[in-house]
Amino acid sequence: MNNLSPEAALLINHVFKSLCGAKPSWRGGFKTNDDVNAYKEALALTFMENGITTQDEVHKGLAEARRNDNPFMPSTGEFLKWCQPDKTTSRPEHKLLICENKEPATEEEREQAHKILKDLRDSL
To answer: Cα–Cα distance between 92 and 86 in angstroms, integer?
Structure first.
C-alpha cells in the first residue's frame, strides 16, 4: 500500500477496521501482518480496477457486511459486489424499456432508443 495516496490508504484502513468491527471473528483469519497487508492491497486494487470511487459505494458495501451472516471475511470480489450500485436505481429509465420482441435490437434501433431517452431526460 506504499504507492497509494494518503487518502486512499486511510479509506482502505477504514474499510478493513470496519469489516473487522462488524464481525470480530473475521480478524482471526489473518495470521500475520503480512496477511493483513496483502488483503488491504488486494482491496485497493479491486477498488481501482473496478471504479469504486465514492464513499456511498463503500458505505453500501460496509452496510451489507454488517447484514451478512457469513462467518468469514469477504473476498475482495464479494466486497466489490456489495459496493456496486443497484442497476435498477442507477438507471430508472431502464424500467420503461419493456418489450416483447425477443430479437436483439439493431444498432440503429439502439441509437434511436438512446436519443429518445436523452430527449426525455432533457425535457424533465
So the answer is: 10
In sequence order, what are the residues at sequence separation of 6 or more whose Cβ sits closer than 8 angstroms to the Cβ of residue 72?
26, 29
Percent helix / strand / coil, the chain, rounded to 5: 70, 0, 30
pTM as predicted: 0.64
CA–CA separation, 68 and 70 (whole Å): 6
CB of 96 closer than 8 Å to CB of 42: no
Average pLDDT, stretch 60-65? 93
**How high is the mean pLDDT of the chain?**
80
Q: CB-based contacts of 30: which residues, under 8 Å, 6+ apart? A: 36, 39, 73
Residue 90: per-residue pLDDT: 43
Which value, to the nearest 10 degrees, does the dihedral of the CA atoms of residues 55, 60, 63, 68 take?
A: -140
57: Cα within 13 Å, side-chain hemisphere: 16
| Closest to 20 (Cα-Cα) out of 95, 82, 101, 74 | 74
- Mean pLDDT value of segment 97-101: 52
Instruction: Report which secondary-structure segment, H or E, holds 70.
Output: none
